[in-house]
Amino acid sequence: MGKKPLGSDVLKNYWKAAAALIIVGAVMLAGCSTGSSKSASKSGNDNGGSVTVSVVGAIEGFNYLKAGSNIVFTEQMMHGIWPDSFTPDPSLKSVMNSDLLESADLISKSPQVVQYKINPKASWSDGTPISADDYIYLWEAMSGNKKFKDADGSAFLPANTSGYDQISSVKGSDGGKTVTVKFSSSFSDWKSLFNPILPSHVVKKVGFNSGLDNFGDALKVSGGPWMADSYADGQSFVKVRNPKYWGKAAGLSSIVYRIINDSTELASAVQNGEIQVVNPTNGTVSLKDALQGVGGFHLVTAPSLTFQHLDFNESNEYLAKTDIRRAIANAINRNEIVQRTVGQINPKATTIGNHIFLPGQPGYVDNSGEYGKFDAKKAKQALLKAGMVEGSDGYLQPTWGSQAGKDFTLSIVSASGRELWNQIQQLVQAQLKAVGIKVKIVTLTDYFSQVQKGNYDMATYGWAINPYPSTMKSVWCSYTNAECASNWAHYSNSKVDALLKKATGELDSQKASVLYNQADKLLWSDMASLELYEYQQVGGWSGSVDIENLKYNSSALGFHWNDQDWRLK
Q1: Secondary structure element (H or E) that encloses residue 480, with its range
Q2: 204 pLDDT above the threshold of 50
Q3: Most buried of 315, 393, 471, 556, CB within 10 angstroms?
Q4: Is residue 165 classed exposed, middle or buried when 0-12, 13-18 and 19+ CB atoms within 10 A define those classes?
Q5: pTM
Q6: pLDDT at residue 20 above 50?
Q7: 452 or 43, greater pLDDT
Q8: Residue among 348, 349, 370, 367 nearest 357 (CA)
Q9: pLDDT band at 34 (very low <50, low <70, confident <90, very high)
Q10: Which residues have CB under 8 Å from 191's CB, separation 6+?
């Protein structure tokens, strides 16, 4: 993993750098790394070579900026194909892409104006210059403004409009190589925008919403060191060096992503030399044990900017009631869930008490209070008060609604092959049974597709975030708002909307943190979602290869934040 494993000396520098960031920080749980402690080679092999990386999950489309396709490993795979304006480094500092941009400056605070100077050499692989047109198009697609239309005349479906919806204009000059972005209201996390930009001349024709769902020629137009080469559905994705790239060439000739969802199969593939890199993923004890059993494997376990939570779909007539959601939360023993899951990987793992920040970030405050406490007696009393009676079989029965006179039953959706999620669901099932709620575990092959459509009662999964609190706005603001495309639980509170809007426009980080935490207190009071724990990532690389510059990054990019710098010794 670079020059040395992620040890205590690296973590000290990690904390020091994180402390200086604006509303950005590292996570608190102690990361560790086992395996080789030798330094990586100082000079890599520029002759290329290929590395195969594991992928866990199913691809829902390649445009990860679109609602429904914003899956973390898709972003990792596509990294370096569509260029980012800024990328978080391992210290979580936003670093400008100097191949794409000569400068990116805040030239005015009132009104807020940001100016980007595009590298004159920057061009798409088909020869079209990268220009202000690409920035203008992305703003239109991500703004949530219905006056802007996709190729087929429909409204754009962005995954997150935060910041883009506060831009009043994007204009080009100097032959399209200068981009001036003017904001209607201040936006503190402006470096989170235009990451990545898309080839507008291509996407305008094929469509933002569906034109990049399937692999095809549109995906092969690159503006980075990599370009998409091939895809075998459900099996693998390959990206190769972009021969037209004007910047420093990628160190490898190609990276192959192999889709494997079973930890035993994954360990076997590493052992057989079929996979060289296991990108840090949601850790399980079986995955950790399996990889530890592979001879010479350099195991990495570390915290990440990803958190697990339990969602309540408020379109369900019972879950629409705040008192019932609160009662369910009180019936769930979060400490037991942590101890039985991620606590087996990191004994210091704890529950989290914030919907916006993770432990260790400068703005983090535990706002869970009484709403996050396990109290089965209180939970059952609240359910009885909400209009339920205890049946002869011990289950509660509603006296109203569609389940009147029947055992109160909720489904919790599960994804096949997700061991950790399945553990959580079984624990939730047992804990809720103790207070009289019957839980059915429903396994879905198209999990995220169904969750995004709201076809569930309860769901558990993780949000992988980059170090910008504004990105959480689209998750927690009212689902009725166009900019809240990631609010799949049908949660709504106008006071939360107002606080989030004010927080994202506050350039003073401390004042912004106060506003975010005011919103978070309401999220806990409303029991918008029960936050569980911070992910512990498990990954590493095979001892059969010596890869220079492989470094862990706790942002959503994982190892891939600098995959253009990977080299084989």
Answers
A1: none
A2: yes
A3: 556
A4: buried
A5: 0.73
A6: no
A7: 452
A8: 367
A9: very low
A10: 85, 86, 94, 104, 468
Give the model confidence (pLDDT) of 312-354 as tens digits: 999 999 999 999 999 999 999 999 999 999 888 888 889 999 9
CA angle 388, 391, 396 (to 5 degrees): 40
- Round to whole Å and give the CA distance between 28 and 147: 43
Which residue type does 546 have? D
| Sign of the CA dihedral running 462, 467, 473, 476 | positive
Q: Which of 156, 154, 121, 126 is nearest to 139 (CA)?
A: 156
pLDDT at 47: 67
- Two structure tokens written together for 559: 């190892």
Do residues 353 and 365 lie in contact, with contact meaning Cβ atoms separated by under 8 Å? yes
Q: Which amino acid is at 140?
A: E
What the block records as the tokens of 71 is 């899956």
Residues 130 and 198: their CA atoms lie apart, in Å, by 9
Degrees, nearest 5: CA angle 76-81-85: 85
Calculate what percentage of the chain has a pLDDT beyond 70. Answer: 91
Q: How far apart are CA 569 and CA 566, in angstroms?
A: 10
408 — phi, psi (to 5°)? -65, 115
Coil, helix or strand at residue 105: strand
Question: pLDDT per residue over 289-306, tens digit each?
Answer: 888 889 999 998 877 788
How many residues are present in the chain?
Answer: 569
| Angle, CA 318 vertex, CA 315 and CA 322 arms, to 5° | 90
Asked if residues 284 and 420 have their Cβ atoms less than 8 Å apart, the reply is: yes
DSSP string, 269-322: HHHTTS-SEEEEEE--HHHHHHHHTSTT-EEEEEEEEEEEEEEE-TTSTTTTSH
Q: Which residues contact 441 (CB under 8 A, 6 or more apart)?
A: 411, 412, 414, 422, 425, 426, 429
Three-state DSSP at 167 gives strand
